[in-house]
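As a warm-up, study this chain.
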Amino acid sequence: MSERVALYLQDSHDLRDGLDYARYAEEKGFEAVWQAESRLVRDAIVPMAAYAAVTERIKIGSGVINNWTRNIGLLAATFLTLDDLAPGRIICGIGAWWDPLASNVGIQRRKPLKAMRETVEVLRRLLNMERVTFHGEFHHVDGIELDVVHGRREPRDVQIMIGATGPKMMQLTGEIADGAVLNYCVPPEYNDQALELLEKGAKKAGRTLDDVDRPQLIVCSVDHDHDKAIDASKMLLCQYLAQQPHIAKASGVSQDVVAEIQSTLGWPATKEQINKAKHFVPDELVLRITASGTPEEARTKVAEYVKRGATCPILYPVGGNVELLIDTFAQK
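Now compare it with the structure written out below.
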């Protein structure tokens, strides 16, 4: 088992409970807590600031924000502010977002590779406290810099990780980012190709695969009752497979299963629809693409992802008992 482990928080708990989970994870030796920002539900930045304010050592990551909706100057100022709150503990996880959500809010995602390359370049230079002029296809800035009058003027140590799914984005991540946030709802063998692509990108930049950190999101349902743990994962999976087809594709899920789930779920999905659609998710799929079951079963599955190249499991608790998950993977 990896000595590094992190916690992933989304929106299934009261936000104030998330502060307790972050503190408890820190107490139990977790390396980081990551806050999701995916559906139109919970922004990542506000919870990140809250976690940073109530902890002392644990790292705080965005898992992941998108590179389309925040102006690049504001994005840099946001992460500067978070670093003011928790110096050296902030991770910027950023991704290319997904449709139909992006198009439904008026964002036309085009040339995602070029857009991401420009975002990472300008963001990194601004956090390095450079004065930046940049005229690309997506970002246009003239002589801007982070205007720190009160506070630290030195370059900020904020790691930039890309949440990559497709092969071209994975290769770009190996070339330009500090690391890849590897996806969840994928089988461990998904990592084999991901690592090849990351290495290919790293070589392009004169780096090796070891220079690219590879934390991985893993859906983790832990319960002393095996069947309850499986059922909790099914409720989550049916929503993700319906709403995020790129994850379904990467997971190797049959289109028939996805179509059945999609025909049952609305968007946003109701609890009643989720309870109906979860029965279309086969047990074997849950066991293949999540770490679900008893504490021992969950640990065994997470170890498979580590064996396949994940450097730090980011455990996404489903089923409600977050403390049990933290205890299961406690490092101290």
